Task: inverse folding
C-alpha cells in the first residue's frame, strides 16, 4: 500500500496551461476518482503520475519517494488505458506476461502469475487469442489482468469503462469496487462520468479548467459543493442556480422573496448579489411562496422531472414522484426545502457561502 | 442499377482501361515477335509466331544481366539504408519532443519536393572530388537525396498511425523507450515499413538522371542507363530486344503488383495526399 | 535535487536527448547529401566553371545577369509552363474520370485498377522505350492504328516536329502520371459517406447534379493537394522529356530541368547551369511553400 502526493504540480503546453498548482494527498489504499469534463486536466494529472507526461514544475511522490525523475516502468505503478492499449501482435497470455518479462521475472513464475490473473478475471479460455478476437469487455479484462499481474503499489485507470455498453459498465463497476476491496491498493481513476465517481470512489477530485475544484468524499461533493461548478457538474439533473440578491433574511428573486436561515451561512455573508442553489429533489410542489408554470414534464419511469418557469422568467427543474400528473401549462405554487438551500458568490464560478456541513442531510453513499 | 446501364458502364470502363494498358500489351507482344514480323506494314496486332529468342539473346549476348545485378545492389542497398535511417528518424520526429523538431519536419517536406537538377551539379563535383564517381556507392548516396525525404515522410505518417497508448502502456509495463520501440512499435509499423521499402525500391530502381550524370562506365551502370545505351549504341534499333529488356526490367514491379499491391496503395494514403 | 523550476525535468531531458540521437544519423546524411549541395549550388552559381576540368573563376552575379537578359531561361520557363499545364490538366481530367468509373461496381474491378495503376510505377525508361516504339513513324502502332481508324491518312512525325513533339510528351506524361490522381481520388471517394448521396437522391438530384453537388465538393481538398504536388513534380520532370525528345526538336521541348542539364553537361558551363537551377528553384518555391503550408496546417 502506498500513498501518492502531488505538490504544486503545474503543467503547461506552450502558452496553454493544462494544470495550475495542483496539490493532492492520497492516502494509502484510497480509491480516488479524478472527475471533470474533457479538457479539465484529469488525464494530464494521471499521465503525470504515470510518468508519461512531465510536470512543468512541482513534485510527485509515490510511497513517500520522489518519482519525478523515474521513468514509468520504475514507479511501481500499473495503468489501464481507455483504449485498453493491448499489444495487437501478442496473445492474451503474452500481453499479461509482458510487464513481468520487462521486470525480469523468469518464465515459470511468469506463467504461474499469468494463470493466476487469468483465473481471477475468468480469462483462461482466451489466453491463446489475439486481442482482435476478443469482445470489448474481454479486452477490458485483459487490460486489467495486465495491470494486476505485477502487483504494483498504485493502479492508475484512465476512463477504463467508457468504451463498454451500459450494462457491462455497471457490471464492471461492481467488479472494480470488489477488486479494490480485495486488493486494498491505492487506485486513481479518471472519469467524466459522475455516476462512476460517486459509486466507486472513496474521495472525488473534481477538476475544471486545470484547477482542482473540490477534493472530498462523494457525500460532501454532492451535498456541500465547494462552488458553482461542482454544484452544477455533480447531480442529474443538476442543481438549480438562481441569480438574485441577499437582503437580510431573504433571497430576492425578481418579485419574489425567499426566506433564508442566515445561521446556515458564513458569518461574513453580506447583503448584495448572490446565487441561490437548490437540488431538484428539494423543491416542494404544491405549497410555498413561489409561482411557476410547468413547461415540460419528463417521466423516466421511477420519477418525473418537471421543468418549471418562475414568474420572473428563469427556469428550474424539480424532481417529483413518477405518479404525479402535471400538465404542461399548469401553474403551481412551490417552495424550497429550507435546510437544503445553498448560496454562492455571484460570478461564473462563485464559491459556496454556506457553513461547512450545511445543505441537506449528509447521506452515506458507500460503506467504507 | 438497370442491366443495360451496367453493361454500358462496364464496356466504357474496360475499353478505357485496355486503351491505357495497350502500351504494356504492345511491349509484351513486340518482345515475342520474330524480327521478320516486326517491320510488317501494317503491323500484326497479334504475333503470328511467338518466339523467346530476344529474351535469350538479351541474357546471353548483352550486358543486361550485369545491369540487372547493379540495379538490384543499388536499389536494395538504398532501400535498406534509407528505411533504417528513416524508421529511427520518424520515431524521433513523431514521438519525441526537442527544440527544432517542427522545423526539421518542414525541412524534410521541403527536400521531398526539391528538384534533382539543383543538387546534381554539386553532387557531381563532390563525387569527383572524393573519388566516388563511377561507383555504385555514389549512386546510393545520390539516391538518398530523394529516397530519404520520401521514406521519412511516409514513415512519419505511418508512425502517427500507431496508437500512442501502446507505447505508453509498454513504458508503464517497464520497457525503456527503445524497448517499447522494439517490442511494440516496430511490429505495428511493419506494414508501413514494407510499404515504404517497396516505394523506395521502385524509386531507386527507376531512377535515371543521377545514373546518367554520375556513372559513365558500363561496368557499374544500372538498368536505366544501361538499357538506354543499348538503344543508342545499336546501329539498327532492335525494338524486339529493347521490349524484351523493358519487360525484364519491369519484373520486380510485376512481382510487387502480383503479391504486394495493397502495400503500394496504403503508401499512397500516407504520402501526403490526404485531403 | 534542487532543480530550478524552469529547468525541464531530468526524465524529459533524457528522452529529448534520445530523440536527438535517433534523428542524428538522418540529419548527418541530410546535411551531407542535401543541405551542403543545395548551398554549394548557390555558391557555384557565382562562378564560371568549365565542366571537364571543374576549374573556374569567380564572376559574381554575371550568371544571373545572363539568366535575366538572355532568352534561354525565359523560353525554357515558357516551355516548362506549357508542359506542366498541359500534362497536369490531362492527368486531372483522366484521373478523376477514371477514378469515378473504377469506383463503380464493374467486372474484375481490382484487375482494372491494377492495369490502370501500372504505368505510374513503371520505370520512365521503359515507358519511353515503349512509347518511342509506338510513336515510330514507319512501323509505329500509333500511326497505323490511327490510319486504320481513318483519323489520319499519312503517318505523323510524332517526336521530330512541332507541335507534335509537345503533344507527344504531354500525352506520355499524362499516361504515366495520371494513375497518381486515380489512386488519390479513389481513396477519397471511398470515404464519402453514402448518406450524402441518399440525401441528395431524396432531394431529387440526378447523377449529374449529384456529382457537382456532392462528389466534387468532397473532392475539393484532395484535388488541391494533388494539383499542387503534381504541379511541383511535373515542373521538375527530367527523365521523361530528356529520353523522349532530348528537348528537341531544337529546344522546343527543353524544359528548365533539361536546360540545366544541357548547360552543365552539354555546353560545359557549370556555373551558368547552377544559376539556372537556382532560378528554377525560386520559381518552384511558390508552389512548394503553398504545399508545405497546406500540409503544415493539416498536421
Result:
Amino acid at each position: 500500500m502506498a500513498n501518492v502526493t502531488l505538490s504544486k504540480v503545474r503543467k503547461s503546453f506552450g502558452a496553454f496551461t493544462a494544470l495550475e498548482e495542483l496539490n493532492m494527498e492520497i492516502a494509502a489504499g484510497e480509491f480516488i476518482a479524478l472527475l471533470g469534463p474533457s479538457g479539465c486536466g484529469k488525464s494530464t494529472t494521471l499521465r503525470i503520475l504515470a510518468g508519461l507526461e512531465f510536470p512543468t514544475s512541482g513534485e510527485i511522490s509515490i510511497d513517500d519517494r520522489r518519482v519525478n525523475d523515474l521513468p514509468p516502468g520504475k514507479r511501481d505503478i500499473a495503468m489501464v488505458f481507455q483504449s485498453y492499449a493491448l499489444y495487437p501482435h501478442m496473445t492474451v497470455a503474452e500481453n499479461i506476461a509482458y510487464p513481468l518479462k520487462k521486470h525480469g521475472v523468469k518464465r515459470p513464475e511468469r506463467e504461474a502469475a499469468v494463470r493466476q490473473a487469468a483465473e481471477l478475471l475468468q480469462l483462461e479460455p482466451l489466453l491463446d487469442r489475439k486481442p482482435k478476437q476478443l469482445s470489448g469487455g474481454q479486452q477490458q479484462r485483459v487490460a486489467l489482468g495486465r495491470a494486476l499481474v505485477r502487483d504494483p503499489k498504485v493502479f492508475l485507470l484512465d476512463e477504463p469503462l467508457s468504451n463498454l455498453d451500459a450494462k457491462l459498465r455497471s457490471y464492471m463497476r461492481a467488479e472494480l469496487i470488489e477488486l479494490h476491496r480485495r486488493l486494498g491498493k491505492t487506485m486513481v481513476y479518471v472519469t467524466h462520468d459522475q455516476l462512476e465517481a460517486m459509486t466507486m470512489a472513496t474521495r472525488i477530485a473534481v477538476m475544471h479548467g486545470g484547477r482542482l475544484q473540490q477534493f472530498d468524499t462523494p457525500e460532501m461533493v454532492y451535498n456541500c459543493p465547494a462552488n458553482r461548478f461542482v454544484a452544477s457538474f455533480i447531480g442529474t439533473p443538476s442543481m438549480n442556480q438562481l441569480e438574485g440578491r441577499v437582503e437580510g433574511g431573504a433571497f430576492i428573486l425578481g418579485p419574489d422573496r425567499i426566506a433564508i436561515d442566515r445561521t446556515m451561512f458564513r458569518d461574513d455573508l453580506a447583503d448584495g448579489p448572490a446565487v441561490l442553489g437548490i437540488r431538484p429533489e428539494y423543491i416542494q410542489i404544491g405549497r410555498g411562496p413561489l409561482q411557476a408554470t410547468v413547461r415540460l414534464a419528463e417521466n423516466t419511469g421511477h420519477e418525473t422531472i418537471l421543468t418549471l418557469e418562475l414568474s420572473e422568467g428563469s427556469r428550474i427543474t424539480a424532481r417529483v414522484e413518477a405518479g404525479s400528473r402535471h400538465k404542461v401549462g399548469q401553474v403551481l405554487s412551490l417552495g424550497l426545502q429550507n435546510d437544503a438551500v445553498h448560496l454562492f458568490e455571484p460570478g461564473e464560478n462563485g464559491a459556496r457561502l454556506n457553513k461547512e456541513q450545511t445543505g441537506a442531510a449528509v447521506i452515506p453513499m458507500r460503506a467504507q | 442499377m438497370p442491366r443495360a446501364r451496367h453493361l454500358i458502364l462496364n464496356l466504357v470502363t474496360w475499353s478505357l482501361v485496355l486503351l491505357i494498358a495497350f502500351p504494356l500489351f504492345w511491349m509484351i507482344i513486340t518482345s515475342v515477335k520474330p524480327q521478320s514480323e516486326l517491320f510488317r506494314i501494317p503491323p500484326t496486332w497479334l504475333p503470328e509466331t511467338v518466339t523467346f529468342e530476344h529474351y535469350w539473346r538479351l541474357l546471353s549476348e548483352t550486358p543486361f544481366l550485369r545491369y540487372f545485378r547493379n540495379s538490384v545492389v543499388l536499389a536494395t542497398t538504398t532501400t535498406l539504408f534509407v528505411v533504417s535511417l528513416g524508421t529511427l528518424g520518424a520515431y524521433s520526429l513523431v514521438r519525441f519532443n526537442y527544440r527544432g523538431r517542427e522545423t526539421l519536419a518542414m525541412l524534410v517536406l521541403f527536400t521531398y519536393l526539391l528538384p534533382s537538377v539543383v543538387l546534381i551539379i554539386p553532387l557531381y563535383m563532390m563525387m569527383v572530388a572524393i573519388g566516388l564517381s563511377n561507383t555504385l556507392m555514389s549512386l546510393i548516396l545520390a539516391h538518398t537525396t530523394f529516397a530519404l525525404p520520401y521514406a521519412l515522410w511516409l514513415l512519419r505518417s505511418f508512425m502517427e498511425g500507431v496508437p500512442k497508448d501502446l507505447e505508453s502502456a509498454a513504458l508503464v509495463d517497464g520497457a525503456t523507450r527503445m524497448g517499447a520501440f522494439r517490442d511494440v512499435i516496430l511490429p505495428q509499423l511493419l506494414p508501413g515499413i514494407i510499404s515504404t521499402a517497396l516505394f523506395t525500391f521502385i524509386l531507386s530502381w527507376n531512377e535515371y538522371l543521377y545514373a546518367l550524370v554520375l556513372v559513365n562506365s558500363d561496368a557499374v551502370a544500372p538498368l536505366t542507363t544501361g538499357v538506354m545505351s543499348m538503344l543508342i549504341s545499336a546501329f539498327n534499333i532492335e525494338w524486339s530486344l529493347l521490349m524484351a529488356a523493358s519487360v525484364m526490367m519491369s519484373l520486380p514491379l510485376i512481382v510487387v503488383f502480383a503479391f504486394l499491391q495493397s502495400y503500394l496503395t496504403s503508401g499512397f494514403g500516407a504520402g501526403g495526399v490526404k485531403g | 535535487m534542487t532543480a530550478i523550476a524552469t529547468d525541464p525535468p531530468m526524465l524529459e531531458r533524457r528522452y529529448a536527448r534520445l530523440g536527438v540521437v535517433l534523428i542524428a544519423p538522418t540529419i548527418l546524411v541530410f546535411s551531407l547529401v542535401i543541405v551542403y549541395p543545395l548551398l554549394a549550388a548557390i555558391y557555384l552559381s557565382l562562378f564560371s566553371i568549365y565542366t571537364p576540368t571543374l576549374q573556374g573563376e569567380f564572376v559574381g552575379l554575371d550568371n544571373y545577369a545572363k539568366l535575366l537578359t538572355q532568352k534561354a531561361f525565359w523560353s525554357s520557363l515558357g516551355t516548362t509552363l506549357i508542359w506542366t499545364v498541359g500534362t497536369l490538366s490531362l492527368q486531372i481530367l483522366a484521373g478523376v474520370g477514371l477514378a469515378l468509373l473504377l469506383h463503380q461496381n464493374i467486372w474484375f474491378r481490382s484487375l482494372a485498377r491494377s492495369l490502370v495503376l501500372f504505368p505510374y510505377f513503371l520505370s520512365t525508361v521503359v515507358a519511353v522505350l515503349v512509347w518511342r516504339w509506338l510513336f515510330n513513324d514507319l512501323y509505329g502502332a500509333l500511326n497505323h492504328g490511327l490510319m486504320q481508324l481513318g483519323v489520319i491518312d499519312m503517318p505523323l512525325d510524332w517526336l521530330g516536329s512541332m507541335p507534335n513533339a509537345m503533344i507527344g510528351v504531354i500525352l506520355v506524361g499524362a499516361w504515366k502520371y495520371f494513375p497518381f490522381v486515380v489512386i488519390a481520388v479513389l481513396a477519397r471517394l471511398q470515404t464519402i459517406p453514402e448518406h450524402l448521396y441518399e440525401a441528395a437522391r431524396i432531394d431529387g438530384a440526378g447523377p449529374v447534379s449529384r456529382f457537382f453537388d456532392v462528389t466534387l465538393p468532397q473532392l475539393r481538398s484532395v484535388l488541391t493537394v494533388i494539383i499542387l504536388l503534381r504541379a511541383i513534380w511535373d515542373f521538375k520532370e527530367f527523365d521523361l522529356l530528356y529520353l523522349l525528345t532530348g528537348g528537341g526538336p531544337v529546344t522546343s521541348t527543353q524544359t528548365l530541368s533539361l536546360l540545366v542539364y544541357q548547360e552543365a553537361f552539354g555546353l560545359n558551363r557549370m556555373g551558368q547551369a547552377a544559376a539556372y537551377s537556382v532560378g528554377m528553384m525560386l520559381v518552384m518555391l511558390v508552389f512548394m511553400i503553398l504545399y508545405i503550408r497546406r500540409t503544415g496546417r493539416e498536421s
About this structure: Chain C touches chain B through 99 residues (CB under 8 Å).
